[in-house]
Structure formats: C-alpha cells, structure tokens
What we know:
Blueprint: H1 14-35, H2 42-54, E1 59-63, H3 66-76, E2 84-88, H4 94-101, E3 105-109, H5 120-123, E4 131-137, H6 146-155, E5 159-163, E6 171-172, E7 175-176, E8 183-187, E9 201-205, H7 208-218, H8 239-249, H9 252-269, E10 284-285, E11 291-294, H10 298-307, H11 337-345, E12 346-349, H12 357-373
Parallel strand pairs: 2-3, 2-4, 4-5, 5-8
Antiparallel strand pairs: 1-9, 6-7, 6-10, 8-9, 11-12
Helix pairs in contact: 1-8, 2-8, 3-4, 3-7, 9-12
Amino acid sequence: xxxxxxxxxxxxxxxxxxxxxxxxxxxxxxxxxxxxxxxxxxxxxxxxxxxxxxxxxxxxxxxxxxxxxxxxxxxxxxxxxxxxxxxxxxxxxxxxxxxxxxxxxxxxxxxxxxxxxxxxxxxxxxxxxxxxxxxxxxxxxxxxxxxxxxxxxxxxxxxxxxxxxxxxxxxxxxxxxxxxxxxxxxxxxxxxxxxxxxxxxxxxxxxxxxxxxxxxxxxxxxxxxxxxxxxxxxxxxxxxxxxxxxxxxxxxxxxxxxxxxxxxxxxxxxxxxxxxxxxxxxxxxxxxxxxxxxxxxxxxxxxxxxxxxxxxxxxxxxxxxxxxxxxxxxxxxxxxxxxxxxxxxxxxxxxxxxxxxxxxxxxxxxxxxxxxxx
Length: 374
C-alpha cells in the first residue's frame, strides 16, 4: 500500500463528534439559555447523579476541572504541609502539581513497563511515617490495579485517590474506575472520552461525609449561602457544561466501544512489525482515551507523521521527577528508568471513534513505513 498524502487524520476531530449529536447538544444548550440558570441547578445535579450511577459510586460532586477534582479530594482528606503523597512519575502534571499546591510533598514511584500505570511492587517501599495518601493514576484509559493498591493503603492506613481523568468507564474486573478508592477524580477536558465544551471535572466517592465536605469546599465552604463552616473556594461546574456532558454521557459506551474497535484494527495492522502495541490487561475494560505505541526514533516518527498530515502527540515528554519545579526533591535522571524510557519512546495515534477504516489503515501504513524501514 502506498501512502496517500491527500488523506488528513487529525489527532482528534471534535467537529466529527459534534456532527453526530448536534441536534441533542443544541437543544440542551438552548434549554439552559432559556432557563437562565447558569450556575448549579438541575442540570448539574442531574449530571452528578448520572455520573455517580455510571461510575458505580454513591456520590458525585461536580467541580471546575479535573485538576480541581484532585486538588479538592486531597483538601477534603486534610492533606497538607508535612505530609507525603505517593504518585507515579509518568503522568500528567496535575497529579503531582495538586499535591504540591496543597502544601504536601509528592513522592514518585516508577511505572509498570507494559501498562504505564503505577508499579505496585514499588509502592510499599516508598511509604514513610510521613506518607498520608496515594494518588494512583489510570493512564491512557486503562484502570490500574486498584485492589492491590488499596490493600497496601489499608495495611498502612493511607488514603487512596484514583486519578481517573482519562478512564471514566474503564473497569478492573467489573468495577468501574473511581469506585474503588476514597475518591475518584474525572476530567471533562474536551479531548477526553467524555469531554465538555471547556474545562470541567467531577469527584466521586462512596462516602457521604466526604462528598458533603468536598461539596462545601467547592462552594466557598458555605451552606446555607453566606454561612461558612469551612474556608473553601469557587470550583463550580457551569450548567451549560453539565447539559452538554449529560448528552455525551448517553453516547459514551458506544464511543468507548468504537475506540476499542479501532484499537483492535491497529493491533492487527501492526502485527509482525517493530511497533510496540499498547498492552491490554485482560482484567480491565480499556477505553483507549489514547492509543499509545512504543517505537525507536520516536521524535523522528512524530516529524514524519506530521509531514503525512497525521496528528499525533507525545504523552509525556518529561517525567515528573525530573521536572524543573521538582528539582528540590532531589530526584536524578536514571532514578525512574521505566518512566524515562516511556517518555522517550511513546507516541499517541488518532483513535477517536469517528475515524474511517481508510484513515486507520493510512496511519498504520505510515507508521510501519517509517518504523520498519528506519
């Protein structure tokens, strides 16, 4: 097959998604505009109930972003100065940034070379008398080994948060992401499987008391209005975002199935090549928020794909333990070898459900042309 440079494959095409649900979304937006109820209200409450039900949790609290969701979860649990919080070194910055913003110290552990989720074999050794919590990340749409992590946390009486920003709907042996910890946190950034028309987030929990405290902190600690039992902040989800997300949630399982179908075709097309395909732990339901391959000469491949009009992205080029802002923690290059290798060798390909088979085959052929001939 010869590559055809007239084909264009963006990393993500939100217009293609919108075209499939335009009537529903437009009606939902119009409904909010007619109601003029823009902050809180029935749309936000309904979304919270629907996300809680979808994630197999008892409670959900909407907030302004996925970053705020982690920040508020830590805040609710009383994490602060003097505390250590363990998290993986290979993840989006917010996982550790929120720990630091709460005044605590992030403690990094390396990741599993197959799933890129936290290496559970390294977790216990990172625990010290100052450790108060673990933030486990379910990266790229695959739930991490929450039962093992939770058992370790229970043994050492630590709080557990699942950063499920990329994994709403993912499962571990039938249990949904977000349901197996003190808090699960979701992001509704537009590029996510369930993405809004801007920033948005959600905290989920099985604990009514924790949910109520998180809800207070999201709204300046006030209940009723102007009566403040806590010093909180303003981290509310707009009703417009909630209305759009409610429409999209109804389609989420179909979209996740479409992504899994596209991943299966990629896997088939890359068979026998030097392309390192994503590992799928059979205990999980993988929703493929990203389809991340591993290749030699990754940066050269990225440039090549750009020349072929194929969108791609590097998640993440610099592991957290060697970020400049964390230099004071004393980590050195080489201390997290799996994270460092992943940062140098992985790249995400287009995987969204609206891709045509022609586009998928074109992407795969271009990748193989480069990798197998490099």
